[in-house]
Write a structure and sequence with these properties.
Helix content is 45%, strand content 23%. By secondary structure, the chain is α/β, with parallel strands linked by helices.
Length: 587
């Protein structure tokens, strides 16, 4: 090990030790702890000089100077100063090379209070694959190809599965990150914000092994930073006020995560004031937002109950970012608050899993999937007694029954589905668009995605629809037979009746005759285009939703909306988004 490696290791060890000592000093005000912190920084400065790291030397010389001034009677080592040092230390201890001039300038600005440190997050870059890994994958692919050419399908399948396993492992490590790693330095932020706001706050993290995509990590961190800063600035009371209210002097913020029904839940909870919804209602009325619930209006961009920004929050920005983050990932955010007891924000969105194993079944002309983890058993020739399936001396309620049942699927939700055929068990990539009874879509099995039903939500959906026909009719107008076939097959899996038209003029005639519930219309077609088609449909019925389904520029999109289209979806988007849009118009 050379001197440089020794310095980097010492920097990490002494830097992390200094963070813990600073936390201890802020809490105890023990002067001996302050002396120990000074000693650590002095050691780092000296070691940096020996290895020629002038950036580190100058930074710690600047910090050391404050400690010397403190020893000479100046009151410069304040809690705020120490919190600023703590805010840059997690980034500094990760350095593998000297601090650049630009970084040095930024760090000094932070230490001296002219700049706020950015929250740290692990890089989302994918990086490059080692050559030996690529060679292994190529070797497996060649073996599979040659096995197929020899007619040895068994060995080819084995090699393909090896490639799949290696790729899945690579993707998991390259593109996903554990939540606990993102939050590894979050206590530093809490210390910094609590010190600035002259409050005492303890952070509790109840995070398991849940993962998210690395590309989402920065936005997730920004969202959590805002919620925690809000909690400290406006939720947690001052130590004196907490004592008056018979609360512990130290406030508590808890961040917890869990997975429920294929959704990741993140809760950010504090034990402070709670949100004053009466004040929110009053400010809502002033801003002409009185028609909205206070639980919703706090997420409106620019909304704030404060008259002036305070440097931490209250500028009227932030909570809309929380809402947008969850909505963009197919989820939502909720708030639960109690006056004097605290507030809990619940952010949830579908778990992004890369690969899933599903059972593909067919019933009444529809094809859909069931996650194998939701299945207890698949039985042939199921015994049905009073709309229940008997299996191992136990009765299971039937939540789906085809007209020609040949197989019964027993789920771990204590229900049964009767289907006409079982196509097989497949692995596929998952698109986590979910709604109603669908918890996602699986690709790579057929040319169109297949919906994955949720046994729990499927049970609720079928119960709510009992006694109603609920068969909606969708008119697809497109000159491409490929588009009509793929979109039609895909939408049929949702129980929709599909009517097709190869051009605008025939589409208008079919519209008059069939009276569909929703129209999906292309733009570039022979004869009249999609805009003229939409205009004529509007003359016949102004209420039927029309979705322009094409690849359009912004100007063309505006024209489509002008002639009466309700929405636009690019053909570049996944078809499951089309299904979700249709569902929204229908319900």
């Amino acid at each position: 090990m050379d001197f440089l490696e020794v310095f980097i290791q010492e920097l990490r060890e002494k830097g992390e030790e200094s963070i813990e000592l600073i936390k201890s000093y802020i809490e105890t005000k023990d002067a001996s702890v302050l002396n120990e912190i000074y000693r650590l920084f002095h050691t780092i400065k000296g070691s940096a000089s020996l290895v020629g790291f002038t950036g580190f030397k100058e930074l710690f010389h600047k910090i050391e100077d404050y400690f010397k001034r403190q020893m000479n009677g100046e009151n410069v080592i304040t809690d705020e100063f120490l919190a600023r040092i703590v805010s840059i230390m997690p980034e500094i201890v990760k350095k593998q090379e000297d601090i650049t001039d630009k970084e040095l300038s930024i760090y000094i600005d932070v230490v001296e209070g002219r700049k706020t440190a950015e929250a740290d997050v692990i890089s989302s870059s994918a990086g490059s694959l080692p050559a030996e890994v690529l060679q292994e994958l190529l070797s497996n692919a060649l073996s599979a190809e040659n096995s197929l050419m020899r007619g040895d399908s068994k060995n080819a399948l084995r090699e393909i599965r090896l490639v799949k396993q290696k790729l899945v492992s690579l993707i998991q490590s390259t593109y996903y990150i554990k939540l606990k790693n993102i939050l590894s330095n979050f206590d530093v932020l809490v210390l910094q914000e609590a010190t600035i706001n002259k409050k005492k706050v303890k952070l509790e993290i109840e995070i398991g092994d849940e993962k998210i995509e690395k590309r989402d990590s920065k936005m997730l961190l920004d969202m959590l930073v805002h919620l925690v800063r809000n909690a400290i600035a406006h939720g947690i009371e001052s130590p004196e006020l907490r004592v008056q209210r018979h609360k512990p002097e130290v406030g508590k913020i808890t961040i917890r995560s869990y997975v429920r029904e294929n959704e990741l839940f993140l809760e950010i909870e504090d034990d402070g004031n709670g949100i004053d919804f009466d004040k929110v209602r009053k400010r809502s009325a002033e801003k002409n937002l009185g028609h909205m619930r206070p639980e919703d209006v706090i997420f409106v961009p620019g909304f704030s109950t404060k008259d002036e920004a305070d440097g931490t929050s209250g500028r009227g920005i932030g909570l809309d970012v929380v809402k947008n983050f969850s909505n963009a990932r197919g989820g939502d955010v909720e708030v639960v608050t109690s006056p004097g007891k605290g507030t809990r924000f619940i952010v949830h969105f579908p778990v992004k899993t890369f690969l899933i194993r599903v059972l593909v079944v067919e019933a009444d002309g529809m094809q859909f999937c069931i996650d194998t983890s939701d299945i207890v058993e698949v039985i042939s020739k199921p015994e049905v007694i009073d709309n229940q399936v008997k299996y191992k001396d136990k009765l299971y309620e039937i939540t789906y029954n085809t007209s020609s049942p040949r197989f019964g699927i027993i789920t771990n939700n204590n229900t049964a589905l009767l289907v006409s055929s079982v196509i097989g068990v497949f692995d596929g990539q998952v698109s986590n668009e979910n709604y109603d009874m669908i918890k996602g879509f699986v690709k790579n099995i057929f040319v169109y995605p297949l919906p994955i039903i949720s046994p729990e939500r499927f049970r609720k959906a079928t119960t709510s629809r009992e006694g109603s026909e609920n068969t909606y009719k969708i008119l697809v107008i497109d000159d491409s037979i490929v588009t009509r076939t793929l979109v039609g097959k895909f939408l049929k899996n949702f129980g929709y009746t599909i009517v097709e038209a190869p051009d605008g003029e025939s589409g208008v005639e079919i519209f008059k005759k069939e009276k569909p519930d929703v129209v999906v219309c292309d733009v570039e077609m022979p004869g009249i285009d999609g805009f003229e088609t939409t205009r004529r449909l509007r003359q016949i019925n102004k209420d039927t939703p029309v979705i322009i389904f094409s690849t359009l520029s912004t100007e063309q999109l505006a024209k489509g909306l002008e002639v009466g289209a309700n929405a636009y979806l690019s053909k570049d988007e996944s078809p499951e988004k089309l299904a979700k849009l249709i569902e929204r118009f229908l319900h």
